[in-house]
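=== RUN LOG ===
request id: a7f3
mode: sequence -> structure
chains: 1
length: 166
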Amino acid sequence: MTASLRFLSLRLRIPLVALALFVAAAASSGLCRPASAQPALERLSIRTAGGIHVFEVEVARTGEERAKGLMFRRYMPADRGMLFDFGSEQPVGMWMKDTFIPLDMLFIRKDGSIARIAENTEPHSLRTISSGENVLSVLELNGGTAARLGIAPGDRVAHPLFGTRP
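=== RESULT ===
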């Protein structure tokens, strides 16, 4: 009986060690984040001809946050997005390397007006998507959101980054 308990115990330990190694690898790669590491969300609204649309967004303020963006994410809720703050108005180029979901990119001027929209950008593409003019930020939403909600160039984004409240 003792020998079979030892054997059983060894058979149970191997999967537990494998599970522990998987969890450690997932945590170090960013696939698994503790609840305290979840990104803070900020409210943002877009005023269109059809009304006001509210989103909860992550704000990428540092170079590291902007470089990572929405890479490696396979899902984003419909009312979420990411706002890239470039700190000053400048020409901006974005790409979709290592991004798994199609996105709408809204290029936004300092006054909160939308300069241009790149709709349904292609996942994993290395093609540069240009702002076409100086902008302060870019808002990334799920692909198709701009068309579905009637968001167009000239519409206004409200967020403290633009000196307005949603």
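=== NOTES ===
The longest strand covers residues 80-94.
The chain has two domains: 1-36, 39-162.
=== END ===
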